[in-house]
Input
Amino acid sequence: EETLGEKYVMLQSVSLQATHLVIFISKRLSPLVSNVAFDTIATGFKNMVGNKGAVKISFSLADKSFMFINCHLHSGLNGVGKRNHDVA
Output
């Protein structure tokens, strides 16, 4: 409330180690929200360590669907194949 004010509320937050995602929504729209879901997927060492991976929040607002994704993928020129595999 200190930063966004009283007109907004946190809808959902999700974290995977240092990868975070937070969705805020106007209080006046909150009655129109449904189907809130979140998920994480670790793609680091043996697909178990969360140093690489993604977080996702999805929800419906009235008759529209929204999905927000934040990801930390493998880096560098040699990581192209790993990045493509992780996103597929």
Observations:
- The first helix runs from residue 80 to 87.
